[in-house]
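The methods section describes the discrete structure representation at length, but only in general terms. Since the whole study asks how a given chain folds, the encoding of that fold should be made plain. An entry of this sort, consisting of the sequence and the corresponding backbone structure tokens, reads as follows:

. . .
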Amino acid sequence: MDIPILKHNFNLAAKPSADKPKPKKKIAKNTDVPQYVWDRYFQAWEAWFAKTAMGKDGHKPYKQDKPPVRTAKGMQDYIWHFIKWHGGDAERRNSMVMQVDNRYIKSGRSGTGDMSVIINGKHAQLEIKAGKDVKRDTQIKRQKQIRAAGGTYEFIYSIEEFLTWFDSFTAQKTLF
């Protein structure tokens, strides 16, 4: 049985691009984040860990890193963990359009929030905005649709704003 030999055309003599190197993307630092944000994050982590089998067996919680909460992904990480540690459920959601061959396939619904969360039996969609990110028309339209149906759809611009929203949302009475 003959094994095919794959030939690669690596041009090792190619000169490096004369273009300037792209500047490294700056990662937002957590230096301006108030201490209470981290206190609440780690208190939630320690309380959740104490309820796990490892916590009940007397193990100490392992170290949790601080997510970069001045970025959208960092805020999503913080919120996802925070809600999970408070006994809720959270998932990240994406809507996008992909090209497959000559077709475009839409995935998800336009304007859907970045995160879908359930806390104390109540559902909410959260749209995370960081830096210069602004509301899109489809998101505003979706927010109106969800609110008209009695649901919750919020734009979150900072972790401090999320914690305020979380406290208010969890203090509301449920219908059941």
Notes: Residues 89 and 118 are 5 Å apart (CA to CA). Helices lie at 35-51, 53-56, 72-85, 137-148, 159-171. DSSP finds five helices and six strands in the chain. Strands lie at 89-92, 96-100, 103-107, 115-119, 122-128, 153-156.
